[in-house]
Amino acid sequence: MKRSPTRSKEATHERIVDVAARAIRCNGYHGIGVADIMKAAGLTHGGFYAHFPSRDALLAEAADRAGFESVQSLQRLAAGSSGPQALQAMIQGYLSKGHLESAETGCHIAALGSEMARQVPEVRHAATRRLKETIDLIARQFPDWGQPAARERALVTLATMVGTIVLARAVDDPKMSDALIDAALKHLDPISH
């Protein structure tokens, strides 16, 4: 059975966005070109404009996809638990060696945060929307969810998690990287506090 042209175009579009979402987390917004993304998706550069009006439109979709995947990852970590146990699972998973070593599939904020301020409004909006979802997901794990204090703790928790991964990736000293992660895990542990 043949796919309809519309379904085939949608599947191709999704493949391009998937490739771009990985690529921006790995190489940054300016570290990738349309030709590279299309080649990685198994397509020719000429077909790009059949799917996107501009490179910025692709980057906005890629930022949204990367953010969506980040939120989903935290939700999976928290699944089956609630409150402090769910928050602990999210923190431990986020601050894991696997996440540290997998920028291309990891948190969009940790991979792209320093570049977001220099992006076009559509890209910044997509990234901001997913950042807000992440903050809300963390805030929902606190017993006083819905109160300003829970949101504030979620902001500090996320900022600490993201900052830790950024710093741990930045240094060339594995012991320092481990020390950063260990300190953040100890400080953020919701069960021992």
Number of helices: 9
Q: Say which CATH homologous superfamily of the domain at 54-188 is assigned.
A: Tetracycline Repressor, domain 2
C-alpha-based Rg, rounded:
18 Å
Overall mean pLDDT:
92
User: What's the end-to-end separation, in Å?
Assistant: 58 Å
Shape: globular
Percent strand equals under 5%
| CATH architectural designation of the domain at 54-188 | Orthogonal Bundle
- The arrangement of helices and strands along the chain is HHHHHHHHH
Number of strands: 0
Specify the structural class: mainly alpha
At CATH level 3, the topology of the domain at 54-188 is Tetracycline Repressor, domain 2
Low-confidence stretches: none
Helix content: over 70%
Largest sheet: none
CATH first level of the domain at 54-188: which class? Mainly Alpha
